[in-house]
Write a structure and sequence with these properties.
The complex is a heterodimer of chains A (790) and B (307). Chain A has 790 residues and is α/β, with parallel strands linked by helices. In chain A, 44% of the residues lie in helices and 15% in strands. The longest helix of chain A is centred in the N-terminal third of the chain and has 37 residues. By secondary structure, chain B is mainly alpha-helical. The chains are: A alpha/beta (790), B mainly alpha (307). Chains A and B meet through helix 4, helix 5, helix 8, helix 10 and helix 17 of A and helix 1, helix 2, helix 4, helix 5 and helix 8 of B.
């Protein structure tokens, strides 16, 4: 009898077990953060730039171009890489064996034919490219899960084929007949006599499959497809000139490989270290596979014994217990209780005060805004935040320009059947850039999306000159500019139905050549073009459909289509009257909660939202601006209260801020970030900015995903709190863009729907304390996870 | 209809099915990828993919593959998809064909020698090296070969081969070697196992006892009977080769299908990705069926002869 335990099996298990052990024990084996980069080391008289050679400056395996330690990278990377491999293996095993076993058991049936055809087809797909397709489909930014799902789709057929042929071979065996003769049901025969006989084969196939998965992961990494997607950054930023640098955020063997590819001649170890890691793990799994095959040939063990209802139940119980407990494991679970201390009643009271008619809509530069700012500062003071504004106050003051209406705008139909339309109900004005004061009278000319380029013009065949253009449809470039070039005297947009007629933000920055611009409701627009017998919704739909087709398959669109534009004889008068631009002094409100860890206190988390609103109409009607955005500072204040009470927990410093001038174009947040470059909380030192904007009503809880990793962090936090986190509807920017522009990770917390924003209806009554609570708890939980964890 | 005709028809249908499937899947995946930022619901994605598929096959039936949007390897001008395919496909197939041929010749030789040799040390070395070659990732081999050539130039001023670029000369050496490595190991391994098994069979013992030369026993009897698994290994080797193709083409700047595909996928260009993937998939399917047919004929011939 030859030995069943061959050296191949032992060596294979040692290698694979070794990598698992290295991955698990990584924090014990190195104190270096695998993502920590050091690009310059001062060595006596010399300054040395990364990459560092193996064995120098405390880098046992050298460093990459960013000075990240490769030894730490490779052992931490084993975690992500092997996790993906095992998850993919498990999914492939489940899907493949189930389908393969069904096909084999019902061999010759139409089910078998369908499954076999699918297995043949998938077997012919080139693995790496096919996996790439699905990694992008599942969003490469979502990290490990996209890789696991994509690779599972690519390779399920391997187990399927093996299982099918094994089951077909078993099917005719006499012992199955015997089992049936005893009276066992088909299912019981399958479970008791077929499955146990498959196990040795599956064990062997699983080991070989794991090596194939690792190989694909390596090839994907080498092609630059890495977990989280990575980023190509111009390396000029670091002052070394030329070329691109590849930056990754998840430590994984493939990512190191992707980066090392560019340095083969200068620093071969960067690519050789992860490549050797891949090669050894692949060899380990292959050895294990061949070893297992020999093992089962020489020492037939009854693996079926392992397979009983009891073991299945035990595995299931452990899995469920782990799944249930996992949100509460680790420190993150402990923060839930703190996050729940958020006081929504108090937050709602702040909203009531800030959105009270006495504040007159908190227009930047107005008395109402200044009162609101003092209120927020008083709250910060009573909570015990340190003032971070000018001259030891909470106010960071700055100047800007603002613009107001001097009278209500006018839209009227003139001629035989005159009609005066209602501002804020039927139509509303646009102010800023090329849209300014003016009065115009002319015929309405429908010009589709208002596109005028070299290849295509929506103005073709119409007479826009001296008239008023009506724009509804997909656009391109600047439609107001196209209208001015065509000689139009005013522009009428049709408000998108999902937004309705709202009071837009005004920007006090005007260009040369302006004209009056208004938006009308779809019903009014239909009235204006009534004589044509057409409807705006149909026209818009046709144009949108065209646009979609041409984007989807440009090669099928061979000639520019006919525009749908037409003249009408409907005559209208449009008037927008603005007061002169006036300079104002205004202020952000800023408070600080210093971190308790002297080193980490130098890194900041910033939480805030804008305090300003859109003010009051010339006719005296007030826009209360309760959800947009009294709710933001209200939530910020109550978050500050909870964190101030637990300040000992905070390692990092936290800054709380309420901005002015958001409605006028993110001016307050821009002023804050611009001024911060000479302070300790300059963009370099900001861990994250959390913008709370419109988080008090309407639809589900949402977080934006411009910084995908930050969004994922909030998603995990929301899960621990029992909330579903979705994406907000997109309507231009908010204050987090001032930070995103400086590459500071930033997120906006809001609702999935816009609600009555920018209307008279945005009153405290629409703000839901439960939603304030959800926003507050989510931010608290996420901030604690970022700023309190060791 | 004869049985042979039915078999051929089924196979043709299967090839078409595989082609349609990859086009549809490429549409779904890349439409999903393109609409990720808008958080489009799955229904919209499927609808758009369905329309894209319709457009694709409509233009295909009109005899046009449409225009490719790929630019960088094509010098920045728009070309018809047919041109792209005609340009890239032969370049890739030349590489893969050379690699599989090389892998087959070397693999069968090594497999046979390992099975036939009486020296257990030689056998261990050969089997061990196929195991190592199977575990050797293409990118590691590529990097090692590049480093080797750099080292040769640096130390001995010997230029082994050009490291990067396209050319129907010694530029072929590196990509072919890298592409052939794992297929070689696969074929060698299968050949070894198959011949080893055959050599223990009764008929071989009979042949040997008749006093036939070992060369004849292996060449005429064992190898012929082992051909079926070897053909299977060649089919698998082709799959491995095509799977590794993008890595090799991108690394060695070889302007073939893998290179173009990588760009099409990264640009979310579903139609181009579908066409190029379709070309690869149809190639694999046809070669695989041809090898299957050859194997079936072999089985038929041997059973026919014995009965």
């Amino acid at each position: 009898m030859r030995r069943a335990l061959t050296w191949q099996l032992i060596l294979g298990m040692v290698i694979v077990g070794g990598w698992i052990a290295l991955g698990v024990a990584a924090p014990l084996l190195t104190s270096v953060d695998p993502l920590k980069s050091t690009t310059l080391i001062i060595d006596g008289p010399r300054s040395v730039l990364a990459p560092y050679d193996p064995g120098t400056y405390g880098y046992p395996l050298g460093s990459d171009r960013n000075g990240r330690d490769l030894w730490a990278g490779v052992i931490y990377g084993a975690r992500a890489t092997l996790t993906i491999a095992f998850v993919v293996l498990a999914v492939r095993l489940m899907v493949g064996t189930t389908l393969g076993a069904l096909a084999g058991w019902f061999a010759g049936s139409s089910l078998d034919r369908a499954v076999s055809a699918l297995m043949d087809a998938f077997g012919a797909f080139p693995t790496v490219l096919f996996a790439m397709l699905w990694i992008f489909a599942f969003d490469i930014r979502s990290g490990i899960s996209a890789f696991a799902a994509a690779l599972a789709i690519t390779g399920w057929w391997g187990f399927g084929r093996a299982t099918r042929s094994a089951v077909v071979a078993l099917r005719g065996r006499p012992f199955l007949e015997a089992a049936r003769a005893v009276g066992l049901s088909e299912l019981a025969v399958f479970a008791r006599h077929v499955v146990p006989n498959l196990l040795p084969m599956l064990a062997v196939a699983a080991a070989l499959e794991a090596s194939a998965i690792l190989l694909v992961l390596g090839e994907l990494g080498f092609l630059g497809i890495v977990v989280g997607g990575g980023q190509n950054v111009s390396s000029d930023v670091t002052g070394r000139g030329g070329g691109n640098e590849f930056i990754f955020a998840t430590t994984e063997w493939g990512a190191i490989l992707a980066q090392g590819k560019f340095e083969i001649y200068r620093a071969a170890w960067i690519v050789l270290v992860p490549a050797a890691a891949f090669a050894s793990a692949i060899l380990g799994f292959n050895l294990m596979g061949y070893g297992l095959r020999t093992f089962f040939e020489r020492a037939p063990v009854a693996l079926g014994k392992l397979l009983s209802l009891r073991t299945a139940m035990a595995v299931l119980a452990i899995f469920i217990a782990f799944r249930l407990a996992s949100p509460y494991l680790g420190p993150a679970g402990g923060y839930v209780a703190v996050a729940r201390e958020f006081d929504a009643t108090r937050a709602r009271a702040h909203v009531d005060w800030l959105a009270d008619p006495a504040r007159a809509g908190r227009y930047t530069g107005s008395a109402g805004y200044n009162e609101a700012a003092r209120y927020v500062a008083d709250q910060f003071k009573s909570i015990g935040l340190e003032p971070l504004g000018s001259d030891g106050t909470y106010f960071q003051s700055w100047g800007t320009n603002i613009v107001k209406l001097s009278s209500m705008p006018v839209l009227e139909r003139v001629g035989a059947d005159p009609k005066r339309y209602q501002p804020r109900v039927d139509f509303t004005e646009r102010v800023g850039g090329r849209a300014a004061s003016g009065t115009a009278e002319g015929n309405v000319v429908y010009v589709g999306g208002g596109i005028r380029t070299q290849e295509y013009s929506d103005y073709q065949g119409t007479h826009a000159e001296g008239n008023i253009v009506l724009i509804a449809g997909p656009t391109q470039g600047d439609p107001i500019d196209a209208a001015i070039r065509s000689g139009a005297k005013a522009v009428i947009f049709v408000a998108p139905p999902e937004l309705g007629v709202i009071r837009y933000s005004y920007s006090a920055f005007f260009e040369r050549d302006t004209l009056p611009v208004i938006s009308v409701s779809e019903a009014v627009a239909d009235e204006l073009i009534a004589e044509s017998g057409k409807r705006i919704a149909d026209l818009r739909r046709t144009l949108e459909e065209r646009r979609r087709r041409s984007e989807q398959r440009p090669s099928l669109v061979r000639s520019a289509p006919e525009p749908l534009s037409f003249d009408t004889s409907t005559r209208v008068r449009v008037q927008v009257a603005l007061a002169p631009v006036e300079p104002v002094r205004t202020m952000n409100v800023v408070g600080l909660l210093p971190g308790s860890d002297p080193e980490r206190a130098k890194k900041f988390v910033i939480i805030g939202g804008h305090l300003d609103g859109i003010g009051t109409d010339p006719d005296g009607t007030i826009f209360p601006a309760a959800n947009d955005n009294a709710s933001g500072p209200a939530v910020t204040i109550e978050i500050a209260r909870v964190l101030a009470a637990k300040r000992a927990m905070l390692k990092n410093s936290v800054i709380f801020v309420a901005f002015a001038g958001e409605e006028e174009g993110l001016i307050g947040s821009e002023a804050f970030v611009s001024a911060s470059v000479s302070t300790p909380y300059r963009p370099d030192n900001v861990v994250a900015f959390i913008n709370v904007d419109m988080g008090g009503c309407c639809g589900g809880l949402a977080a934006s995903d411009e910084s995908f990793a930050l969004h994922q962090r909030f998603k995990a936090a929301a899960e621990r709190l029992g909330y579903d986190l979705e994406y907000p509807s997109r309507i231009g920017g908010s204050d987090h863009f001032a930070f995103l522009r400086r590459r500071v990770p930033a997120v906006m917390i809001s609702g999935t729907e816009l609600g009555p924003f920018h209307t008279f209806g945005d009153t405290p009554a629409t703000v839901d304390p439960a939603r304030l609570r959800a926003s507050g708890e989510l931010v608290l939980q996420s901030v604690l996870e970022m700023a309190a964890t060791e | 209809m004869s049985r042979a005709a039915v078999t051929v028809l089924t196979r043709v249908l299967l090839v078409i099915f595989t082609f349609v499937l990859i086009v549809v899947l490429a549409q779904i995946a890349l439409v999903a990828a393109r609409t990720r930022f808008d958080h489009a619901p799955i229904g919209d994605v499927l609808l758009q993919a369905w329309e894209g598929t319709q457009d694709y096959f409509a233009s295909l039936l009109q005899g046009s593959l449409g225009e490719a949007t790929s630019t960088s390897i094509l010098g920045g001008r728009r070309r018809s998809m047919g041109e792209v395919l005609l340009d890239a496909y032969p370049k890739s197939m030349l590489l893969v064909g050379l690699a599989v041929a090389l892998a087959t010749v070397l693999g069968v030789t090594v497999g046979v020698v390992a099975a036939a040799t009486r020296s257990s040390r030689l056998r261990a070395v050969l089997v061990g090296s196929t195991m190592a070659a199977i575990s050797l990732p293409s990118f590691l081999l590529a990097v090692l070969l590049i480093l080797l050539s750099a080292e040769m130039v640096r130390r001995y001023n010997v230029r082994l081969w050009p490291s990067f670029g396209f050319g129907l000369d010694d530029h072929l050496i590196l990509p072919t070697l890298v592409l052939a490595a794992r297929p070689f190991a696969q074929i060698a391994n299968f050949t070894f196992v198959a011949i080893d098994e055959e050599l223990g069979a009764d008929y071989v013992r009979t042949a040997r006892s008749k006093g036939l030369l070992e060369r004849v026993v292996i060449g005429r009897h064992a190898l012929r009977n082992a051909l079926v698994p070897i053909l299977g290994a060649i089919a698998a080797a082709l799959s491995i080769g095509l799977s590794t193709l993008p890595v090799v083409e991108v690394f060695f700047s070889w302007p073939g299908v893998g290179f173009s595909l990588l760009q099409a996928i990264q640009r979310f260009d579903a139609a181009t990705a579908g066409t190029l993937l379709g070309a690869l998939v149809v190639t694999i399917a046809i070669v695989r069926f041809a090898l299957d047919a050859a194997a079936a004929r072999l089985v038929h011939a041997s059973t026919g002869a014995s009965s």
